[in-house]
Amino acid sequence: MKNSRRWALRGVVLLYVGVLVGLPVLFLVLKAFSHGLGAFFAEITRPEALSALKLSLEVAAVAVPVNTVIGVGAAILVTRHHFAGKRFLDTIFDVPVAISPVIIGVALVLAYSRIGWFGAPLATWGIRVLFTPLGIALATMAVSLPYVLRSIVPVLLEIGTDQEQAARTLGAGRLRVFWHVTLPSIRWAVMYGVTLTLARTLGEFGAVLVVSGNISGVTQTLPIYIFDSWDQRFDVLGSYAGALVLALMSTLVLAVLALLRRRERKLSVDLA
Amino acid sequence: MSISLKHLTKHYNTTAAVDDVSAEIAHGSLTAVLGPSGSGKSTLLKLISGLESPDEGTVVIDGDDVTKLDPRYRDIGFCFQHYAPFRHMNVAKNVGFGLKVRKRSAKEIDARVRELLALVKLEHKAKSYPAQLSGGERQRMALARALAIEPRVLLLDEPFGALDAVVRAELRVWLKELHTQLQVTTVLVTHDQQEAMEVADQLIVMRSGRVVQSGHPLALYERPSSSFVHEFLGPTTIFAGEVIRPHDLELVSIYEGTHKGRITRIVLLGFEAHVTVELSEGTTTWIQLSRNELSKLGLRVALLVGVRRRGDLDD
C-alpha cells in the first residue's frame, strides 16, 4: 500500500517533468537532426552561429571572473566586517535576480544611452556601451551578480572566524589569511557559485536582448541567435541546432555542478 | 615573560565585558582565569592576544606596551576553545603554519614540526586531517601549533571544555607536566574551579567583567574575600549562620556536637559521601566525609547525631 503510493507519486513527478522538459527537449533533438547530421553541422558552422557562440563565450569569460571576484569580496565584507549600510548592500545584490531581466536591460539603456547619466560622459571619451559587446557584458554581469555571494555567505558564517583569528595570532597578515585560510575553506562554495554564474551567463536572454540591438554577427549571443533564427529569419533548423548546442553546454555546466555538490556533501560529512 | 594588565576595559555595545581589570601575571607562571560564563574571562584573553582591542587600559608583555600592536606581531600562542584547526591542512601543515609565515626553510620547519609532534605525542598523526582526530588529539595539535612559534605567552581558552571527563583529567595532568617542562608563561580560561585549582599556580577570579580576587589557589580556597569566591571555589553549606565548607564539619555523637540533628539523606559518590542533617534549630546543613568514615561511624538515615566544626575539639 505504502509502496504503491510511493510509486504513484514518482509517476506523477516523472510525468510532470517529462511533459514540461523531457518531451520538448526530445523533440528539439529529433528536429535538430531531422535533415541529417550534415545539415546539423552546416547550420552550427554558419558564420553567424559561430560568431554568436564566440560572443557568448567571450561574455562569459569576462562576466564570470569579474562576478566571482566581486562576489567573494562582497561575501567577506558582509560576513566579516561591520559597517553602516551592510544590510542594504546584502539586499541590493538580490535585486537583479528578483526583478525581470528585461527591466535590468531597460535600466541599463536609460543609464548608458547618450543622454544617460553614465552614457553621456562615456560618450565624450569615445566609449559606447549600448549595442556593443561591452553593453552585453554589463547586462550579463548584472543578472548573474548574486550567485557567488549567495553560495559563499552561508559557508563563511558556518566556519566562523576562529581559523582566521588563529592564523593572525600565528603571524599571518590579512592577504595570507585570505589565500591560505579563508579561500581554501570556501573553495567548493566558490566553485558552486561560479558554475551557477556561468550557467546564467550563457543562457541570459532578456537583459541582453534589450541592450544588444540584435546586430547579427556583432552583438548576437547564442540565445539571441536562436531566437532570431526562429522568429525573424524563419531558419527553423538553424534555431534548433543552435538551441541544441546551448542546451548541451548548459547540461555540461549542470553536470559539473552535480559533481561539485557531491564533493561538497562528502566533505561536509568528513568534517562533521 | 610577565604580563601586566592595567585598567583594561572593553565594552560591547553598552555592556562592559571587561571592566577596569588590572592584574600581574608572573614570568613562567600558569595562571587560571576563573569565572562563570559571561564573566568576561574570554574577552580578557582576547585583549591580551590583541584579537580585541580595549576601550581603555594597557597590556604590557615583558615590559613592552603592546596595547596597539597587531596580534600577528605579539608572539602569542593562542589556543581556541574549539581548537580552530585549519581543516584543509594536515596535522603537520597546521603545526608548521606559524613557521611558514615566518619564512623558515622547509628543512627547519620539518625538523621543528617533528619535534613538536613528539612533544604532544602525535607523531603518528602527522599526515592526518583534523576531521580524523579525536577531541583530545585536536587539542594537542592546537597546542603544538601555538607552541611552534616559540611564543612569549601561551593563552588557552577553555582548553578542556569540549572533552569528556576521562580525557579532560588526562590532559590536565599532561598540560601541567608540559608547563613544568617548557616554563612558558601560560594563562588559561576556565569555568571549572576544580580544573583551575588542579593546574594553576595563580588564580584570577572574575565576575561581571571585574576581578573579584586573585592569588594562590589554596589561599583563595582557605581565605575567600567574598561569599561569591567562597561558593565558586568549592562546595559550601551554612552552619551556625556561617558559610562553611562541608568538609570542615564532622559528625559525632549527640553529646559531643555543638549542634544536634537528624540525618535526612545520605548520598554516596564513590569515595566520598554527602550527609544531610536537619538541625534541631530547624536549619539544614550537609557534611562531606569519606566513605570509610561513614561506615566507621555506622551512619544511617533518621539517626540522631551531633555536628561540630572539625578542629573544635582541639580549641
Please give the structural blueprint.
The complex is a heterodimer of chains A (272) and B (315).
Chain A: H1 2-32, H2 36-44, H3 47-80, H4 86-92, H5 95-98, H6 101-112, H7 119-124, H8 133-143, H9 146-159, H10 162-169, H11 174-203, H12 206-212, H13 222-231, H14 236-271
Helix pairs in contact in A: 1-14, 2-14, 3-8, 3-9, 3-11, 3-13, 6-8, 6-12, 8-12, 9-11, 10-11, 11-14, 13-14
Chain B: E1 3-12, E2 15-25, E3 30-34, H1 41-49, E4 56-61, E5 64-65, E6 76-79, H2 91-101, H3 106-119, H4 135-148, E7 153-157, H5 165-182, E8 185-190, H6 193-199, E9 202-207, E10 210-215, H7 217-222, H8 227-233, E11 237-239, E12 242-244, E13 249-252, E14 259-269, E15 272-279, E16 284-290, H9 291-297, E17 304-309
Helix pairs in contact in B: 2-3, 2-4, 3-4
Compact overview of the structure:
The complex is a heterodimer of chains A (272) and B (315). Chain A has 272 residues and is an all-alpha fold.
What would your notes on this structure say?
The complex is a heterodimer of chains A (272) and B (315). By secondary structure, chain A is an all-alpha fold. Chain A has two domains: 32 residues; 237 residues, MetI-like (MetI-like fold, Orthogonal Bundle), CATH 1.10.3720.10. The two termini of chain A are 37 Å apart. The mean pLDDT of chain A is 88. With 315 residues, chain B is α+β, with helices and mostly antiparallel strands. In chain B, 30% of the residues lie in helices and 33% in strands. Chain B is built from nine helices and 17 strands. Chain B has a six-stranded mixed beta sheet, with helices on both faces. A five-stranded antiparallel beta sheet of chain B has the order 13-17-14-15-16. In chain B, strands 2-1-4-5 form a four-stranded antiparallel beta sheet, covered by helices on one side. In chain B, a hairpin with a 2-residue loop joins strand 9 and strand 10. The radius of gyration of chain B is 24 Å and the shape is elongated. The two termini of chain B are 46 Å apart. The model of chain B has no long low-confidence stretch (mean pLDDT 91). Classes of the chains: A mainly alpha (272), B alpha+beta (315). The interface between A and B is medium-sized, with 19 and 28 residues.
